[in-house]
Specification:
This protein is an alpha/beta fold. The protein contains eleven helices and five strands, in the order E-H-E-H-E-H-E-H-E-H-H-H-H-H-H-H. 50% of the residues lie in helices and 12% in strands.
Length: 225
């Protein structure tokens, strides 16, 4: 199946470069572009992309506000794309907030072309992008600055089975499905089933939100291995 992508960035050269790179892939179709977040929302709602590749810092409407608009739309708007944030900074306040808003991950703009292509495919598949490893470090850094664990989230954890809780911990530590399967001596498909149940029980969109939840609920603390 072809992955439909739109690119939202205020730099025309960046949009053109990313568009050319992605359009050259047989399984990716660039269906639109926008120079700012406001137009990005319009293009997304008219083209219904699978993935919105979006810069964090833009005029008119920044990436954070745009992510919120796309992922928490008004009544009547049913299309919810995956959002992949792009940034030139490896530590950026907006990134943590974008993940909390429902973005599926982020990637540095100077990442190798192969990483960008892979990131789009990963996010489109619903796996959420928690790589490169700087993402985990970033989330951990911001988790240190968050307030005490939220009681409502801690209570939600009571609805998970011991195995599901174990899987959530490993997701928060950045392990892939294969790595979780190896750690717990399970089939990879079984791991996927557990992850699906965790997301469903906690009302989470994807792995990125699961990581945020694990930190904010106090289940995982920064620096744990």
């Amino acid at each position: 199946m072809t992955i439909r992508v739109i690119i939202v960035d205020d730099q025309a050269m960046v949009r053109a470069g990313f568009a050319a790179l992605l359009a050259a892939q047989s399984d990716i179709d660039v269906v639109g572009e926008a120079p700012d977040g406001k137009k990005g929302v319009e293009v997304s709602r008219s083209t219904h992309p699978d993935v919105v590749l979006m810069d964090v810092r833009m005029p008119e409407m920044d990436g954070l506000a745009t992510a919120r608009a796309l992922l928490n739309p008004p009544p009547g708007v049913v299309h919810l794309p995956k959002v992949l944030m792009l940034t030139t900074f490896d530590v950026d306040d907006y990134v943590y907030e974008a993940l909390r808003a429902g973005a599926s991950g982020f990637l540095l703009k100077d990442a190798p072309p192969a990483d960008l292509i892979s990131a789009v495919r990963v996010v489109a598949s619903g796996e959420a992008l928690l790589a490169p490893s700087v993402t985990r470090r970033l989330i951990a850094d911001f988790a240190k600055q968050r307030p005490a664990p939220r009681k409502d989230q801690s209570l939600q954890l009571n609805g998970l089975t011991p195995r599901e809780t174990e899987v959530l911990v490993l997701i928060a530590r950045g392990l892939s499905n294969q790595e979780i399967a190896e750690r717990l001596v399970l089939a990879e498909q079984t791991v996927k089933t557990h992850i699906g149940r965790v997301l469903n029980k906690l009302g989470l969109r994807d792995r990125a939100q699961a990581v945020i939840f694990a930190y904010e609920s106090g289940l995982v603390t920064p620096g744990e291995q």
